[in-house]
Amino acid sequence: MSSVSPYSAQHVASIYRRLLRLSLNWTVRRDIWRKQALEIRAKFDANKNITNPREIRALIMEGERQLAINRHPDPYIPPSRPGGSKYERNVPPRLDNPIDGDY
Question: How many Å apart are CA 87 and CA 92, to the nearest integer?
């Protein structure tokens, strides 16, 4: 029987990235956010050598719980991304020949 956790390293990395993005939603200044990012990284590094599947499962559940609890009601969306304030604001003109009356 294998002692491999049912949770992949990709899942853990996904939680890490989502926690970083979540903290960036709550913190406007990058210098303050950087300290929070280092704290998040330290927590993940402190638990990277755990091999007990139950402990791993509990840590992943805690990470998912933190994401749910601290979810921002109005997350930051970069202006040029879908849903951003500048998304498709200046759409380039069509380059094909317009059909008569379709200007």
Answer: 12
Which of 64, 67, 59, 66 lies closest to 5 in space, CA to CA?
A: 59
Q: Phi first, then psi: what are they for 90, rounded to 5°?
A: -115, 80
Q: Where on the phi/psi map is residue 3: left (φ > 0), alpha (ψ -120 to 50), or beta?
A: alpha
Spatial distance between the Cα atoms of 57 and 94, rounded to a whole number of angstroms: 52
Instruction: Say if residues 60 and 15 touch (Cβ distance below 8 Å).
Output: yes
The two three-digit tokens of residue 26, written as one number:
């709550």
User: How far apart (Å, rounded) are the C-alpha atoms in residues 61 and 67?
Assistant: 10
User: 13-41: per-residue pLDDT in tens?
Assistant: 999 999 999 998 888 789 999 999 999 99
CA distance between the termini of the chain: 68
Alpha helices in the chain (DSSP H): 9-26, 30-46, 53-69
Q: Which residues of the chain have pLDDT under 70?
A: 1-7, 97-103
